[in-house]
Design goal:
six-stranded mixed β-sheet; globular; ectoine binding; TAT_signal; Solute-binding_3/MltF_N; signal; Ectoine_EhuB
Length: 303
């Protein structure tokens, strides 16, 4: 989903600019773009602001398959869902700000963007800093291991028992999951990018790479030919409670009107599994990943 995991994981353009379900991002802003000092509160109603100006600015971290660039286009689970949602709200353009994952929450609090579109996991720690939409997806955790799984690593408890080294993404919930499973801090290695974790595994610098099953299947698929495989999914535990990775959009605490309008349109999608999979199935999301109606952000924020 420790200090780093607080910010963890881990979303429109004029219709004439959209082709094949991809979003073009004119003037995509880099992480070094102008920042503003903020307290997490909007100076005006953000929903009214984005409707008036005709575009919404999103923060994303380039994590596949949640939100990333493909050429000049912004693609992935979150941009695709959010394209549909903001279009229904009358906002036809999305502008992206690419930044490190652990800079997403500080960035939205500093008014660098209007929403975080990165498939970020909903955790009690993050709920103290920002507000989330209702869940957009639900998934489990898995391990990327060497072909044949020579150390028989089936979950994080097995990693701890074997004294193995596990890789995680910086500011991702898997670090907390690993620590809770008993993996020693010296055996947890953090990486800035998914590809860095896979490369470290292949080079023998780590024994496993922990991430959502969705992410790891995607990573293995785009690295065909590499001697790696994804383990069956499992649910890690925190404080004895099984953890599912449920993610959503992120807003400033003052932006309840924008959050509520977003949720209204999101519900129309998550209540229709056929529409859900037609929108983001190509990114590895299936009906299994549709959040159940009983799973709420309020319950996830409570832990």
């Amino acid at each position: 989903m420790t200090d780093n995991s607080r910010w963890s994981r881990r979303t429109l353009l004029r219709s004439a600019a959209v082709g094949g379900g991809l979003l073009t991002v004119p003037g995509l802003l880099a992480a070094c773009s102008r920042t503003q000092t903020g307290t997490g509160e909007s100076k005006q109603n953000t929903l009214d602001k984005i409707k008036k100006q005709g575009y919404v600015t999103i923060g994303f971290a380039g994590e596949q398959p949640y939100g990333f660039k493909q050429g000049d286009q912004l693609v992935g689970e979150a941009p695709t869902l959010h394209k549909k949602i903001f279009s229904e709200l009358g906002v036809k353009e999305m502008r992206g700000v690419l930044t490190d994952f652990n800079s997403l929450i500080p960035g939205i609090k500093a008014n660098r963007f209007d929403v975080v579109s990165a498939g970020m996991a909903i955790t009690p720690e993050r709920c103290k800093e920002v507000i989330f939409s209702e869940p957009e997806f639900v998934g489990a955790t898995a391990l990327l291991v060497k072909k044949g799984n020579p150390k028989h690593l089936t979950d994080l408890n097995a990693v701890a028992k074997a004294g193995a080294t596990v890789g995680v993404l910086q500011a991702a919930v898997e670090k907390s999951f690993s620590t809770a499973a008993g993996v020693k801090s010296g055996n947890i290695k953090e990486f800035a990018k998914q590809q860095d974790g896979l490369d470290a595994l292949v080079a023998g610098r780590i024994d496993a790479f922990a991430l959502t099953d969705i992410s790891l299947r995607w990573l293995a698929n785009i690295n065909k030919g590499k001697p790696v495989e994804v383990t069956p999914s499992f649910q890690p535990k925190l404080d004895g409670k099984p953890q599912s990775s449920a993610g959503g959009a992120v807003f400033r605490t003052a932006d309840t009107a924008l959050r509520d309008a977003f949720n209204k349109e999101l519900k129309k999608i998550t209540s229709d599994p056929t529409q859900y999979t037609s929108l983001i199935g190509k990114y590895g999301f299936t009906k299994v990943n549709v959040p159940p109606a009983t799973l709420t952000t309020a319950s996830l924020c409570k832990g």
